[in-house]
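Long-time lurker. I teach an intro course on protein structure, and each term I like to show students one example going from raw sequence to a predicted 3D structure in token notation. This year I'd like something fresh instead of my usual example. Would anyone be willing to generate the tokens for the chain below so I can use it in lecture? Attribution to the forum is fine with me.
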Amino acid sequence: MNTPSADTTITEDGSKHLKDTVAATEVETLPEAMDPPAYVYKSKLTEFLWTLPQPIIALTMMSAVAIAITGGSMTPEALQGDADLLTSFLLFSPLFIILAAERIWTKKKGWLLNWREYGEDAFWLFTAAYIWIPLVSDYYSTPIEDAFGWIRDNSFIPVTLEASTIPGLILCAVIVQTISEFIYYWIHRWSHSYTLLWRTHATHHHITKMSAMRSNRTHPTEFLALSFSAPVVLALFGASTEVIAVSAALGFINGWITHSNLPLRSGIWNWYFTSPEHHQLHHSHDFDDSNKNFGCGIIIWDKIFGTFSNSSHIERCGSGTGKQLSLFDQYMLMFYSSDRLKQL
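-- Reply from a regular --
Happy to contribute to a lecture. Here you go:
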């Protein structure tokens, strides 16, 4: 006759129930990706201090671009045609600082990337910056350019997003990001509801680790869907090129920070803007959690439309089986059958 172990109790009806010690044992055997946070907050003050880096970095980078613009240092004349080079440096330099910080102040050790994963992320960043975004830009600058020009010239909105001061440029950039995110919010939310749209978005959710460059893992077909919101807003409000540049700085910074493997905490800044905790929950392998916090940069629309969660608990990230897909599969998800899509 089998006898109950020390880890079970016998109820009056003779049924067996595992004690909490079994659950504790299971937690200890979870894979690295499900480790508890490696960084321990030693005090309430430490937690508060970790609410500050995100707004400081975002405001610093927006201010740097705005200063370069208002100071005339980003004009082609001032740079002898190298304005794009300075803009790229200002936009991308924070990424490498964040990646270095992830190695020092790690939130989850199981999320630390190896060199192969860094190389793969670099590939996604390269293709986004030099292939897909330019293709989309060229697409807009040919047959659709006149359409956006017509929208701008015939806009029913009596406000033009232009500014000549640093605070004005930052405010206009926040307005652009907020309205653009409204369109993005619904595209993103529908992508989680309809299989056809999920095909374009699934690649981004099949990441099994969080890191700054993971924001660039976007299927090229999704670029087309997501690249409509900002141009529509920019056209309707007649946004100046200066506003566009500062808005881009805010968009890039928010995307990298919200995907980072840093122990950043939500603070006052995140009453309005998305925090890493908000977005990490959205990447949770748990189905219900992944259908929360759709805003990548602005969280206010989730709060308005009832999809916001303030939970910071995530055991693991990923989608489907939770396994890391090959680069080939990540690109081919769009074309797989529904049955195969569900098996990955």
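Some talking points for your students: The radius of gyration is 23 Å. The CA atoms of residues 182 and 304 lie 11 Å apart.
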